[in-house]
Amino acid sequence: MAEPNNSQPLCPYCLAPIRIQSRDHIFPQFLGGKRKVDCCKNCDSVFGHTFEAEAAKILQAEHVFISSWGIPLRSADPTWKTAHVQDGKSYNLSVGQTGVKPELAKPVIKLDDEGRVEFGEFVDKKQADKFARSLIEKGKAKEVKLEVVPPPKIDLTGLSHTLVLGPDIRRAALKMCLALSTLLPDFKMEEIAEARLFLRGDRRLVPVNNTLAAYNIYEAIDSRRKALSHVIYVERSQSRVYGLVQFFGVTQLFCRLGMPKNGSGSAAIFASLDPVTGREEFSDISPLDLTEPPYLLSREEHPRLMEGWLKKYRDEAIKRGATHPPDLRRSSLEIESNSFRLRRPDEDG
Ligand SMILES: [Zn+2]
Q1: Ligand 1 centroid to 9 CA: how many Å?
Q2: Which of 8, 153, 177, 180 fits 17 for a cystine, CB–CB 3.0-4.6 Å?
Q3: Could you read off the pLDDT of 55-78 as tens digits, one per residue?
Q4: What pTM was computed for the model?
């Protein structure tokens, strides 16, 4: 085996010497993250095409869902694919200047009794033009009339979003912690060896032991950020290296990262990203020594913690100006899994 070349920096995710350098976002770009760390091009590309792409789908949907409560989240890219079906047409939802914006998910073509195109509805003029041209070229029509129809009034009451804490979102959280931990003073690659295994390992291997869903309230974290902000916190103490990720301030994953290397002092970094202003902040703080959440909740503890968690979600939304505070429920059917069905009230007010 070749000796690693000490002069060449190593990728924090795979430990290979960085031959082709890439810059990986600490907070994912799809959440609005800006600050980056060095890694190898292969890791950056593999992560982007695998778990990050999947985690993005879930979190972008949640971004739009939260916007639908009347909170002015940044109108970045997020699109919630086929979020809503109305009058037999499915719509993607995204965040525009004035709130949630619907867009036809796919063209709707209506045929007459003889199988001829009677009319079609398209996402934009370009798509409609293309379709019209193809009809004329194929001799199926002599002329095609195009008109612009105003966007439909979308009724968002009863909209529901399922938040799944599956392997992809867990890996995304773990990677966010690894990225931030490289900024710890005296950081050593060996400190995060445990977590690294799950990033590079078999995709089917669920990193459930290293990423614990946390329904308890961490006052010390919550008091340091604006409501609904994303957070990454990493800490190295004498006995452990760990992190906590909060998506939208409420979905929490406690990440075991590894063991401190002999001689490294205690240190902690707190990072937050505000989804309303887009402001990203990083600061060195005194270690908070957070309690690790239990791997399994007892039957007595479970409903109490769930209730507190859903209340926290609603409270943070109200604090951030929600005009339609959500009625968040956890379906009883999903109690055993890590999946949440969150829904808007059936009726406004
Ligand atoms: Zn790598």
Answers
A1: 11
A2: 8
A3: 998 898 888 888 888 888 876 666
A4: 0.84
With helix as H, strand as E and coil as C, how does 235-290 read? Answer: EECCCCEEEEEEECCCEEEEEEEECCCCCCCCEEEEEEECCCCCCEEEEEECCCCC
Beta-carbon count within 10 A of 255 CB: 28
Distance 176 CA to ligand 1 centre (A): 14
Cα of 241 to ligand 1 centre, how many Å? 20
Tell me if residue 162 falls in helix, strand or coil. Answer: strand
Instruction: Read off the pLDDT of residues 168-208 as tens digits, 9 standing for 90 and up.
Output: 899 999 999 999 999 999 999 999 988 888 887 665 565 56
Ligand 1 centroid to residue 42 C-alpha, Å: 6
Q: In what order do the strands lie in the sheet with 79-86?
A: 79-86, 89-96, 99-104
Distance 39 CA to ligand 1 centre (A): 6
Give yes or no for a contact between 247 and 177, defined as CB atoms under 8 angstroms apart. no
Decide: 241 and 191 in contact? Cβ < 8 Å.
yes
The count of other CB atoms within 10 Å of the CB of residue 21 is 12
User: Residue 281 C-alpha to ligand 1 middle, in angstroms?
Assistant: 25
Give the amino acid at 149.
V
- How many Å is the Cα radius of gyration of the chain? 23
* Residue 237 or residue 4, greater confidence: 237
